[in-house]
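This follows on from our talk about sequence and fold. Please put the record directly below this note.
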Amino acid sequence: MTRSILLVEDEEIIRKSLSEYLSGEGYFLTSAGTVEEALELARKQDFDVAICDVQLPDGDGVQLLTRMRQINSGMFGLIITAYATVENAVEAFKAGAFDYLVKPVIFEDLHNKLERMFEYKNLARENIQLRRELTVREDFDKIVGSSKTIKDLQTMIHKVAATNSNILLDGETGTGKELAARAVHLAGPKKNERFLAANCGSRPIEFLETQLFGSVSVGANGETQVQPGIFRNVGEGTVFLDEISELPTGIQAELLRAIEYQEIIPVGGSEAVQVKARIIASTTKDLMREVADGRFQEDLFYRLDGVKIRIPPLRERLDDIPELVEFFVSKHSQAMGKRVSAASSETVRILMSAQWKGNVRQLDNAIERAVMMCEEDQIQPNDLPPDLLGVSQPLPDTDDLRSALRHYERLHIQRVLRQWPDKREAAKRLKMGLSSLYRKIEELGLDL
């Protein structure tokens, strides 16, 4: 923990004396004299503690604490008041204050309250981290998220899981189709049976055929050797066929037999073997187009397309990013043996404004890298992969200074707009007028 403190006090003498004392005690101190200044600082940095005077020239310190805790829910508050009354205390505690001080402030009293506060904050963080570590394995097969998009997906999964129908999962790369398949399996009546997965495009056809349907051969000593394959090994469980569009044409007919007649013929065998597996397939391609182009059997398509579930890309569920970040931080910090507990508010804002072409898998990889690079207990923006911050874009192949500056200007404004979608706020960050920002957007041809 950085032990950072935001002191909000309008009386300059008190502010200076408290600042000198707290800095001398080893705290990282930042001070403000108004509500507006304090809110601006709170948006830029995550403070561990805010010490607020009740009477401020442009507002009320108790209300200020409430607003700052909305920006950073992990911030602890300490209220300074000139009059210690029960009503004041109750109001402070309702705003989320941990404790309060009465003027004139006694340094020893302030020190003791801060030490208790940081001790409590450390214990709370450790408890949260331990709970995350205990639940991360249990939640491995659960779909993380609370957005309406994900709730609709979970509702659909539970509806179709109750039956034993075959299912087609349609979604972009990295959206979590295998995770959805596991969720269907675990929500179904055969959840205690096995779940086995195969990638339809990852192996040569002869190996994939053996992997799925098994094989029968005669050994050198004349004994029959049987390899059961996935369909027999899974029993009455679930077979997940990832990237079904990549399934070789020759195996498509055998899969159709497994669906229609619930039987397979092992490679090298002559007798059919009964199978009872449920099939869940996934695709990133338009299977109807694959059928039209002659690359996928029409009968097999209609057998799989009866129950289709679309897995949404991350750009359609941005509200889930904070929850996903929390999950991945816990997962990777536990795996690496690090005590990284969260990502800072600024980091989460950057992640929510990034373009996730690789979807949830890309976010997972970004957090894994950030946990690896993080040297504090919270992930900071500079721990993220450089491409997310827009600093890894190549410079134009030219010696013309104007072209290079224009290129950098474009990248910089794009990055700020991703981080601050509100153009008024973005203009303020860029230290330019709102109308000037709109002119720049048009002039540089920025795609928002």
Observations:
- The chain has four domains: 4-136, 148-312, 315-389, 401-444.
- Residues 133-140, 391-395 have pLDDT under 50 and may be disordered.
- The CA atoms of residues 80 and 203 lie 68 Å apart.
